[in-house]
Amino acid sequence: MRKFKKTIRITRYGPLVILWNEIENDAVIFRILLSKPADPATTRADRLFPDVHEDSCSKIDSIALDICDFLEEKPIDFSLDIVNLCSCSEFQQRVLRAEYAIPRGRVSSYRSIARYLGRAGGARAVGNALARNPFPIIIPCHRAIRSDGSLGGYQGGLEMKRVLLENEGIGFDRSGRVDCHNFFYFLN
User: Fold this and answer.
1) Which residue among 62, 85, 101, 135 is the one 20 to 30 A from 92 at the CA level?
2) 13 and 60 co-located in one domain
3) CA 8 and chain centroid, separation
4) Phi and psi for 180 in degrees, rounded to 5?
5) pLDDT at 3 exceeding the cut of 90
């Protein structure tokens, strides 16, 4: 198993953990852990990666600050150059890249993403790939919802997903479904 370093930041949602390492003298992120209600990211990091030590560098500090700013409603754009997708299958990489392309203030459905990728009937596979997204926030998997407008799931919990979408200008109807007619990858 690769040795990682971890950087921890406290956000309004609880601790955020960035697992990273240096490759050819450049800091690269391998995983980001969000806290969920009753499941802090620090506890999960210690359980999944018990030998990881806390460390940081200016690049990771800057990214951590950008993530915290994003969680505080600031419109931050992230580059995929800062993450290492090598632990993801080819299909998951395609899903993550498609999700990354969804701009702020837009959403898509798992079904539409599957169709865009040429996998009609693959909505569940897309949902599973996003559920295992190693880079939440950087790859904004909160922008994927169910075809009926309900939220689906999210690593940080549904409350965080809703707040992130609201921060991006996405509205909700009385039943709690996304009220957005500006879908990305909308395919009939």
Assistant:
1) 62
2) yes
3) 17
4) -140, 125
5) no
* Cβ 71 vs Cβ 13: under 8 Å: yes
In this structure, the answer to whether residues 149 and 74 fall within a common structural domain is no
Q: In degrees, to the nearest 5, what angle opens at C-alpha 74 toward C-alphas 102 and 146?
A: 35
Number of domains in the chain: 2
Question: At which of 54, 82, 110 does a domain end?
Answer: 82
What residue type is 175 in one-letter code? S
Q: What is the pLDDT of residue 187?
A: 59
Each residue's pLDDT tens digit, 144-176: 999 999 999 999 999 999 999 999 999 999 999
CA pair distance 188, 183, nearest whole angstrom = 12
The yes-or-no answer on residue 68 being catalytic is no
Helix, strand and coil percent figures for the chain, each rounded to 5: 35, 20, 40
Q: Give me the domain span that covers residue 32.
A: 5-82
Measured CA to CA, the distance from residue 126 to residue 141 in angstroms comes to 11
Nearest to 16 by CA among 2, 30, 34, 40: 34
Contact 52, 6 (CB under 8 A): yes
Burial 45-65 (b: 16+ CB within 10 A, else e): beeebeebeeebeeebeebbe
Among the listed residues 57, 68, 86, 141, the single catalytic one is: 141
